[in-house]
Write a structure and sequence with these properties.
Length: 334
């Protein structure tokens, strides 16, 4: 389809309680930059049930316009329902580009929408800008196992769509609500919904792990030696008021649940403090945590690549270093 406007859309995914997932609010930050360069508006799209909290959040974080589809039909994510609603909105309003968070649902929704609209999609992006020569959106994503960064254009079809990893961008400052809020009634025949959510089974080992929103993350890698080694990691994380992360090597070895994984095939994070314990610093892991404000590395190998990006480094056995750190932290907080 042809773009009817120069607007850039951000799909603001919602939680079961109608609040906004952070990634949608994060994407309003680069969305503002792209909207200004395109000469269009920044439009947030909110689909769900009882989503007023998400609408208020999108308004506070700078959306110019908010399209809202609010109905009990959307209380649980459904591929058929959500893609039908989003496609209907796109066909009505004609944005030039759209960003979707690369969550589990976003990675499912984005390709379905692009297929229905007969346009392209760039998945798992870590950067977005405008290509000066063509004026098209330039989507940047890791490729070849994270060893190269590719910049991709979709020059012939609209909207230009990309899924963007959570944690890549920071949420902007909240301001005075100014958005035009437009409510759309989009319904569907229940017979068209081919799947139903019968039961939600939580990953108990990974339950409560919120890496994307954590201000402090303490991660363990191959150097922890086994699942019992994460006991020390948890002690330090608890002392710092943070959460436990892990490298792919530790997850693949079965030492900790995948919900804790940081990196190319895990979560992209941007905490204030990231402590890497027994992690060598492979590029695939660094790709997921390079946005951290402060990086602290603990590794007995003084030549480990992680020290090249660390702000502070301790060369030593993590099982000797961590207890000392925990004691000092407790003394400082006493």
């Amino acid at each position: 389809m042809e773009a009817l406007t120069k607007d850039i859309w951000v799909f603001v995914e919602t939680n079961e309680d109608g609040t906004a997932k952070n990634v949608g609010l994060e994407l309003l930050t680069p969305g503002r930059v792209i909207a200004q360069k395109q000469g269009g508006r920044l439009v947030a799209v909110v689909i769900g049930s009882k989503v007023e909290p998400a609408v208020e959040a999108a308004n506070a974080y700078g959306a110019d316009k908010i399209l809202v589809v609010d109905s009990e039909e959307y209380v649980a994510y459904s591929t058929d329902a959500y893609q039908a609603a989003l496609v209907a909105l796109v066909e009505k309003y004609g944005p030039t580009s759209m960003m979707i968070g690369a969550t589990n649902n976003g990675r499912d929704l984005g390709p379905r929408v692009s297929c229905r609209l007969k346009t392209g999609l760039t998945a798992d992006c870590t950067g977005i800008d405008i290509d000066e020569e063509s004026g098209k959106v330039a989507w940047t994503r890791p490729t070849f196992g994270g060893n190269l960064m590719a910049t991709i254009l979709c020059p012939n079809t609209y909207p230009q769509i990309g899924t963007v990893r959570p944690g890549v961008f920071k949420k902007g400052e909240q301001g005075e609500p100014k958005a035009e809020v437009v409510k759309e009634d989009i319904h569907f025949d229940p017979a068209d919904i081919r799947t139903q959510v019968l039961e939600i089974i939580r990953d108990l080992d990974g339950e409560g792990v919120d890496l994307e929103n954590a201000e402090v993350i303490v991660s363990g890698g191959r150097g922890v030696g086994g699942p019992e080694g994460f006991g020390a990691i948890r002690l330090l994380a608890d002392a710092l008021g943070g959460v436990v992360g892990a490298s792919r090597a530790a997850v693949d070895a079965g030492w900790i649940a995948h919900a804790h994984q940081v990196g190319q095939t895990g979560k992209t994070v941007g905490p204030k403090i990231y402590v890497a314990c027994g992690i060598s610093g492979a590029i695939q892991h660094v790709a997921g945590m390079s946005g951290s404000d402060i990086v602290i590395a603990i590794n007995k190998d003084g030549d480990a690549p992680i020290f090249d990006i660390a702000d502070y480094g301790v060369v030593g056995n993590l099982f000797e270093v961590i207890p000392v750190l925990v004691d000092e932290i407790k003394k400082a907080n006493a």
